[in-house]
User: Fold this.
Amino acid sequence: MAAPSETYVDPSIAGNSGTGTIGDPYGDLQYALDTMTRDSTNGDRINIKSGTAEVLTGAIDLTNYGSPSSPRTAPLILSGYDSTAGDGGIGEIDGNGSSVYNNASGENIYFIDLKMGNCGTSDVIRAGRFVGCHGCEVYGTTANGIKIDNGHSHAVRCWVHDIGDSAVRVAVNGCCAIGCYFSNDGTRTMTQAVKQTNSTSVISVINNFFSLDSTSNGVFHTDWGIGTVIGNSFLTSGTGTAVGSASLGSGPVINNLFEGFSQGIDTYNSGPQGVRFDIQHNAFYDCTTNITSDNDIVYAEDNESLGASPFAKTGSLPTDFTSASFWSDLYAYFAPVDTGNVYSGFPVGSNQTKGAVGQPVGGGAGGGLLRVNMNGNVFG
Assistant:
């Protein structure tokens, strides 16, 4: 497969116009999808220019375009840009009260460098499998931010906030959330940031930042699913649970920082399967209970109660995803400090121990390459 074909949309110009080139872009995303010829060999990247929101009149419809179906070839990529394709500019898709994309069997579609939301009571993104959100802001619904019905999908370096149900909700195998920021900062309060809901689910939650309040929970696993929770920073001013599980297969939970939760880690028995966890090298501050289990924990080692907050809380949490300092401001706020056995700064060398929560790295507001080592730390 060669590089995908490039198509351009500039929402600032007249809607049903243009030819889709960078010099003569389409003026409307749905018009582009209805008009262009799909590259069924290499796929398409539709570049949505920053500056003016693409306001939908309904969820994105691929009837005329055709449905990407193979996980290996011909993806559909929707990506923001400023002046040239892939330059990290943040395009915007306004759901205008409905989903941005809503197809429970849809697959092989990717959202990159986009602001997507204002979806009323509908999921912002709902899809089947082989779906990716990279460097996106997802916001503004009483439902779910990103809902995956059939697995093999991921959210990387996204900001998901102002959500009323789950920020990321997955049902089947092979999903991950890496380097994302989940926050309650709008009119809606999420029930949980990351939720795994099915007996065949496998989800990895690595190097994310959680800023919660009220009764919001961080990560929840259910049934026989498997969840790996490594290198995350959990902070709340409320009464929720940071990591909750009713799953036999869940674990490990390693190298995480927890502050302010009623329950830091809660493993409980909701059925005959029971719960067994591998809990290591986590640090807890101001949690009512650090670790609770109704069943045996297979391995618990070197977990610590702290006498002070493990987070620097320098400056304030960011609120503008298009700002070049968005991620650096977030890292400054959540940067570990020296307390107990938590080390200041982000992990390098000997600091790859308890509380050394890795930071995602990369250029721009939403760009950057992430690589994850065996310790769950992300490096560039």
Residues 271-275, 351-356, 359-380 have pLDDT under 50 and may be disordered. The chain is about 5% helix and 35% strand.
